[in-house]
Design goal:
One of its GO terms (molecular function) is transferase activity. This protein has helices at 40-43, 58-64, 90-113, 120-123, 133-140, 142-145, 177-187, 196-207, 212-221, 232-237, 239-246, 285-295, 312-318, 332-342, 364-370, 395-402, 404-407, 426-447, 460-469; strands at residues 15-16, 48-51, 75-79, 129-132, 147-148, 151-152, 162-164, 169-172, 226-228, 251-254, 276-280, 299-304, 323-326, 347-350, 375-380, 410-411, 417-418, 454-459, 499-504, 507-512. By secondary structure, it is of the alpha/beta class. Among the domains are: 15-152 and 473-512, no CATH class; 245-384 and 426-462, 3-Layer(aba) Sandwich (Rossmann fold), CATH 3.40.50. The strands form five sheets. A seven-stranded mixed sheet has the order 10-18-15-14-11-12-13, with helices on both faces. A four-stranded mixed sheet has the order 1-2-3-4. The two termini are 19 Å apart.
Amino acid sequence: MERSSPAATGGAACQADPGGTGGPAGDARTAGTGGATGTGAGAGAVQAVCSASELPGMEHAWTALGGDTGLLERVSCHLRPQLLPARLPVLELARATVAVCSLSAAELSALRAGTASSGAAAVSRVPSVQVDDGAVATAFTSERHLRTDGRSSVNFAPLSRFWRTADGWLRTHANYPHHRARLLSALGVHEGHRDENALAEAVAAELAQRSAAETEEHVHAAGGLAVAARSAKEWAEHPQGAEAARRPLVSTARVDQAPPLPLPGAFGHRPLHSVRVLDLTRVIAGPVATRTLALLGADVLRIDAPQLPEHPDTHADTGMGKRSALLDLSTRAGQADFEELLKKAHVVVTGYRPGVLDRFGLAPESLADRRPGIVVGQLSAWGAYGPWRRRRGFDSLVQTASGIAFEERLPGPDDGTAPGVLPAQALDHGTGYLLAAAVLRSLTEQRRGRCGSGVVRVALAQTADWLLNGLSPQQGPPRLAPKSADAFDGTPHDPAPWLNETRSPLGRLRYALPPVAYDGGPADWSRPPGAPGTDPVAWW
């Protein structure tokens, strides 16, 4: 696509970079753009260029993916202080997840090009990875930078927020009409002819008389979304939190001994060239993962149910490089169409609650029976375990339940404290990059002789546990705290060097460039998103 600004990328050595140049211009991601990398205070001056071994979270995430730790020497990071300000190590999480995703892509690229196999001798043949904090921070807030014909996106509906209850705080999620209706029904609040402000006042008055924990259960029973704000200690003692603490960051398994599926066609410059991905995900985390797979050359076909269309702004942000079709799996015709797609698919990615899609034959074992050698990626909010495994969830709700909102708390009314938020929907984005990395690594392992249909699982709750308990902040200047609970407005960051514009069927889009970067890798998606649900139910 056309470019209006280049991405900033890095060098390979660990050294101070007081000039803030962000490494040499003219590398694989800026060649031919006619511009230099993002520089200066506006872009967030580079503090240092460091190797992965010096930074928190890198080795843990790469080991969780089953990667060879020797390959971490191929990763260098451009650090920019004070981006994604928070009390918790959000930038460290963001940087690590993008780095391991980039390394997974570089590893598969070398393998498919025939320049790497395994062992120490192969390390030097894997392209070097460059991660820039500026690109990472911009990508992790991509939905806030999106513009469609100059219009900013809508990220949270008026009833998606924190509410004061009789004994604490409650967070609701009502971005989708059916969730909004169920929330109001559970609370006994009738919409009538009230405007949004009057409706919010009625909800606030109702919740002020209720217990947070009791309301959580009552709204859940009605099919709505609400969770009580807990401390990290309270979450650790909760049965779901205790289960999350016992699980790995990424779970992988093989369900059979099938050989890897062949990849037809000559290998292109993108490691997922000729790989077909069925995308059955929604909202942010899953679509970020499949958006990344599309960047790397996969033919990604997103499937949505006709009765559950995605929000237009979310589609515009996370639909880069993908095609979008509607398919009703509850009908025989829809199931027949899906089976035709599955016959040629290499990867299926799902982002629904565990078990919800099983009745449509989408359990990993069932998919592997019909398409031996398939790689299945599964994403959920709370994980495929514990008493909340069947519950709906979103990033904001997991932040609230897990203790993250408590850790980020702010001065509140009546000399109390109000729950806070992370400076980005970091659980969504970070989990998305982990899921993309896990799919890439599964494909790599298959081609190295580890036979079997692969299953990889990630959950927002696992990423939350890692942020709270498994990451330590990078040493540096004092960390900033966010300024308000519902507005991410504390970041001293000019994203311009990592934004681009293009014409699209949706209008003129301004969007965040991908943060995944390695030598010879793609700098941008090959195509913008089209109108949702308008592509044929067929592979290219």
